Amino acid sequence: MSGSQAAKGAEAGAVPSEQGEQGFEPKIVAFLCNWCSYAGADLAGVSRLQYPPNIRIIRVMCSGRISPMLVLRALKDGADGVLVSGCHPGDCHYLKGNLYTRRQLQLLRNMLEYYGIEADRFQMSWVSASEGGKFADVVKTAVEKVRKLGPNTRFKVMESQDGGE
Amino acid sequence: MSDEKIREEAKKALRERGLKCVIGWSADGTPLFAETEDDIDRLSFNKDCANNLVGYLTQEVRSQRGKTRDGKEKVVKPVGIVVRGCDSKALLLLLNENILSRKDVFIIGVPCTGVEDKRAGALYRKCVKCAMRNPVVYDVLASEKVPEDEKDYSEIEAIENMSVEERWEFWEEIFADCVRCHACKRSCPVCYCDECLLDPTDVAIRPDTTADEKAHRPRWVERSVNVRENLLYHLARLPHLAGRCVDCGECERVCPQRLPLRLLTAKLEKDVKEIFCYEPAKEEGQKPLIAMSKMEDENEFIM
Amino acid sequence: MSKYILKKEKVVDALNALGNANAVYIPVKNKRGLVEYKELGRDAAAADAKFDCRPDVPPKAILFPQTQVLFTFKKVDGKIEVVPTEPDDREKIIFGVRPCDAIAIAVMDKVFIGGKFVDTYYKARRERTAVISIACDGPADSTCFCPSTGGSPAATEGSDVLLYDVGDSYYVEVVSDKGRKILESLSASLETPSPEQEKRKDEIVRKAEAAEGFTRSITAESISKLDSSFDSKYWDDVSRRCLSCGACTYYCPTCHCFDINDEPGRKRVRTWDSCQFSNFTMHTSSHNPRTAKAQRLRNRYYHKFKYSKDNTGRYLCVGCGRCIALCPAGLDITKVISEVK
Q1: Sign, Cα dihedral of B28, B34, B40, B46
Q2: CB contact at 8 A, A110 and B160
Q3: What total number of domains does chain A contain?
Q4: Coil, strand, or helix at residue C6?
Q5: What is the pTM of this model?
């Protein structure tokens, strides 16, 4: 019950952007932790703060739950960008989940860049439950960065390479 | 010269410590599981001995574990192994991760000046400049220690200096040739999971696993072999090796397509060193990089 | 049988002429020094053709691709509609195949189109494929052992045309009607053999029949020991160093096991599978008859040398030696079979 209300709140702040008619609109998968960032997104919604509608939110219990595989799979399946957001260091509901994920995902970010996937396609932020305004800013920045990079074509299959006859 | 020392120490340990077997190389470079003194006389170390044997050690120790009928832990007979510098790093990592226990292994170290790639008739690339020629963990050393080189990252830096597009094309060209025989992951001494997410069919299924559960297993990498899946396959190996890969180069050695896989693992090792000042398997009792955290870790890339 | 001579300097022109009407596959060296079959014009140039060694990768994938989309499906008005994949209907010529690989194609034919059930995907490719082989002058590699498996460095089985390297030219022997038709299109480049060239060719055949120069072999006697060694502890010992990777099977010209999966994008895909992978025999019920590495390794050798012999009368191994050359753990099939206890 409260979950679905929160979901509505979190999505409500997202409004269609004006330049959306022409030009490229990125799709960004956003993994938000339940205790801080999701609540922050909710606050942005109920405060009627506006941010671009390009993110698709997936709520997870803790940013420490984000396996690098989730990020890779999202990028492989065509997401233009991935945003992972959790509690500020020291504020994690589970004490250190965000610190562990910071280590892993920093290495992942470096490896993505080394692999030839622009580092800005994968972004992280710390947003607390009271930072509705920051959440809207983070989404704006993330969307702008990915918009600049253009669509993610890295993992597009070419039919001939896919065993197609 | 070191052959005699290896054999002498192996025989002594076989008698005194009751080893299950000694894992080493025979003179032609193939792995040898020596169970008797006669077998031990065939142990050798020379330029053809290229295999990393540490994976076999895990297999030999683990296969003995379990419980007896009356619920007691089975007795694990210690296993002997001959290791070079790079192998010993992988072995130390397994000890640090408590996959192996020090009392279950007897280690004969052989300082190494490089092994040869028979196909190319020259030293393996990893051996030309090597910073881990001397074993870091051992019970006995078979010969004198040898001088080591500084680690050479020039190949990695060359790739780092490419543009993002160039880099993607570089890897695309390489992994278009991967046939996904899984030799890289199967040979990796620090890969010891029973099931692996890199193969969608390689999942543990028990009698009580329901059809629903089977259908909903995440399939991270599809079975289709194409550039896209291959790229993901090799990228997905890396987070699992972060702070664990000692860059022994076994994956690159076994690759039947001769893909330069060390360009990935060496970069990982370099990053770990530069960002976290961490070197996997540096000392005994070291904690795994990913199982630790610090408030003051770098935070700059986070909004 | 018709006999011709094709001068080596004319091979490039001949390949390009064939390439006009066909997809021609030739062995070429890739960036990493591996010799594999590539399509002329698309991935390779005729001048790069490398005919002086056993290719590291067999031509198997041309007839039986590692990944093949069987069909796609879509939902139309709530109903599932199956869309078959367009078959590859180009005429294909594989040029420069070694006799062992040609025999392997004959073996695969038996599996996919020789029995009661016909594999339409394989059939579509096979019917449009011609095989032009080059006889080996003695073993092409130190790991070769084809005479032990019923093959020969100058075997004609599976080939449509067989070439013999007689110095500055190839002696051309037509084996099948398909081969004759291909050579008709090349008639301008062909000449009549001289007596010396005949003699040189006969010498290659003699050497092949005598199995001269081979350092590895498997005797029928050691193969017959398989009858009684199924439960032998030998398999535990020999499999200890196996890594359970799929290198031996993926590079084997006769290994043909596959797996079928539905994948995102609404497609059903057939991919190679390997009997060395632990879940190869996993049943839906969760029972796995071959959980141990030793069982899986044993099965590979039994399938190659016993089961297939019992069922079809021939070995499933053509003695190309690739599994010996590529095994990361140094397992040698000739040694394993010879030492069976």
Answers
A1: positive
A2: no
A3: 1
A4: strand
A5: 0.91
Considering the domain architecture, whether residues B182 and B255 belong to the same structural domain is answered as yes
For residue B283, the tally of other CB atoms under 10 A from its CB is 10
B24 forms bridges with which residues in the sheet?
B32
Beta pairing, strands B140-141 & C3-7? unpaired
Instruction: Tell me the pairing of strands C267-272 and C258-263.
Output: antiparallel
Q: If we measure between CA atoms, which residue out of C340, C95, C94, C103 comes closest to residue C231?
A: C340
Q: Say yes or no to pLDDT of A159 above 60.
A: no
Contact A77 C85 (CB under 8 A): no
**Euclidean distance between CA atoms C259 and C112, whole angstroms:** 15
Residue A15 lies inside a defined structural domain of this protein: no
Give yes or no for B263 touching A (CB within 8 A). Answer: no
Amino acid at C271: T
- pLDDT tens string C278-329: 888 888 777 889 989 999 999 999 999 999 999 888 899 999 999 999 999 9
- In DSSP terms, C226 is beta-bridged to none
Contacts of A163 in chain C (CB under 8 A): 65-69, 269
**Domain residues for B98?**
2-65+76-141
Q: What is the rounded distance in angstroms from the CA atom of residue C210 to the CA atom of residue C214? A: 10
CB contact under 8 A, A163 and C67: yes
Instruction: Name the strand (E) or helix (H) holding A73.
Output: helix A68-76
ipTM score for this prediction:
0.90
Q: Give mean pLDDT in consecutive 10-residue pieces for chain B, a chain of 303 residues.
A: 87 92 93 93 93 94 88 90 94 94 94 89 90 93 91 92 94 93 93 83 73 79 89 92 93 94 94 93 90 87 88
Residue A33 lies in a domain: yes
Contact C329 B30 (CB under 8 A): yes
